Amino acid sequence: MANIVNATFLGPKGILLARRSQHKKAYPGLWSFPGGHVEENETLEEALVRETEEELNTRPQSFEFLMQISDPVSQAVTYHIYIVSRWDREPEIANNEHTELKWLSVDEAKNLRDLALMEYLAVFEQLELFQQKRETALLSEKH
């Protein structure tokens, strides 16, 4: 079974999606979360940090596991989705894996017609719940 980590950058501008390059074997030209394969003897967290540095030239400083999803085409692939809430510099395209980065609201992301996986819709729902919990926690801290 292949394990893939995905970084869901969540910040004031929304969530970050990356358009996969046309040369990619899986889901070319479609929107996805940055990330990649977990290498042998590497933890999920180590892979997350390595992949975001390789693809986005930034290092996650605060992240937490959100959920996992399976690839509908190949059930032998599991995607481990992490929320990245702090990073050391603005993400940018750092290699040839993506052609475009875009910050979107969760609602905008849910309405994209060219997502790599429709299973991302479940991720967007979980992100909305996460944001609501975070906002509720911030409000209760102020009172």
Would you give an account of this structure?
The structure is a single chain. The chain has about 140 residues and is an alpha+beta fold. The chain has a single domain, classed as Nucleoside Triphosphate Pyrophosphohydrolase (Alpha-Beta Complex). Helices cover about 30% and strands about 35% of the residues. The protein contains three helices and seven strands; from the N terminus they run E-E-E-E-H-E-E-E-H-H. Strands 1, 2, 3, 4, 5, 6 and 7 form a seven-stranded mixed β-sheet that branches. It catalyses: 8-oxo-dGTP + H2O = 8-oxo-dGMP + diphosphate + H(+); 8-oxo-GTP + H2O = 8-oxo-GMP + diphosphate + H(+). One of its GO terms (molecular function) is 8-oxo-7,8-dihydrodeoxyguanosine triphosphate pyrophosphatase activity. Belongs to the Nudix hydrolase family.
Topology at a glance:
Layout: E1 2-11, E2 14-20, E3 31-32, E4 35-37, H1 44-56, E5 60-70, E6 77-87, E7 98-104, H2 106-110, H3 120-142
Parallel strand pairs: 1-6
Antiparallel strand pairs: 1-2, 1-4, 2-3, 2-7, 5-6
EC number: 3.6.1.55
Catalytic activity: 8-oxo-dGTP + H2O = 8-oxo-dGMP + diphosphate + H(+); 8-oxo-GTP + H2O = 8-oxo-GMP + diphosphate + H(+)
Enzyme class: hydrolase
